[in-house]
Structures are given as structure tokens and as C-alpha cells.
Structure prediction request, 168 residues.
Amino acid sequence: METVKSLGIKNDGKGLDYFVPQKDNVDLTTFGEQLATRNSQLVTAFAIGAAHATKRLPTDKIIDICKKIETPIILLGGKEDAENGEKIAQESGNHVLNLCGKLNLNQSASVVQQVDKVITHDTGLMHVAAAFQKEIISIWGNTIPEFGMYPYVDESKFKIVEVENLPC
Prediction:
């Protein structure tokens, strides 16, 4: 905050803000029957990508996670994640919808804004989810929260589980 202090910017203590332009709002019901008939089901977004391979889970691990979740899952990622997202969706079941490579960043943020939970690696969408105060399950590879990359939220809202052999 010291860097922007001269601009009159102060931390209001309310966390991050993210504003989705109206033109980028996404109607989830147009993307699949499992979302159109959502009713009271929880919907999870899974941001499958990351800038480096060492920051993301192997595809087979993501498939295992998706198979264990019975409610709708929306896969998010860039064009570079589209093929991987298709494989994950095909092998995980019809409750998984692949939107990798189909949305821009603001549209992905709109999806995050509408879901109940976000599973993510250390990515920009993790911070978008923090801005929308979503439940976040973050998976860490070669970066760790101690490096300062954790979501900017009240510390009581996240828990770090220590595991051996990172990245796992």
C-alpha cells in the first residue's frame, strides 16, 4: 500500500474488488442442462490452468477430484487449457462442463461470481474468487502461501493443510 499512498489510496479493510462489465455477464443456464436445472444444487468452478506446469495438478488428479464431486462443475481456463479441459470433462462425467478457451477473463470472472465454490491452483481466478468472497479450495504446487500469493481475504476464511512432498 505504500506504493500507492501518494495517490490517496488507502486499504479499506474490505478485501479486493472486481467489477464485471455488463457486456461480459454470463448466463450459466445457456451452457448446459445440468446448469439450467440447477435448482438448489451447489455449483463449483474449477480453474484448471496455471502459468507453469509445476503450479498445476496432473490431469488424472483433476479427473479424480471431479469424479468425487457429484454436483455440477464448470472448468475454467484459457485457450491453452481447452484440450485438457475436454479430456477432463469427457472422463469425469456429464456433470462437468468445459468452458476452457471459450470465455475471456471477465466472462470467467462472471462465472466465478455465480458459483458457490472455486477450486483453483495459484491463479488469477483464485484472487477473483477472493474478491467475490467465494469459498476457495486452493491447490499449491511450487508456489506456497508463505511466499505471499495466498488469496487476500480475512485469515479466518482459509485454512492451509500441510502435506509432505510438495508439489503433490
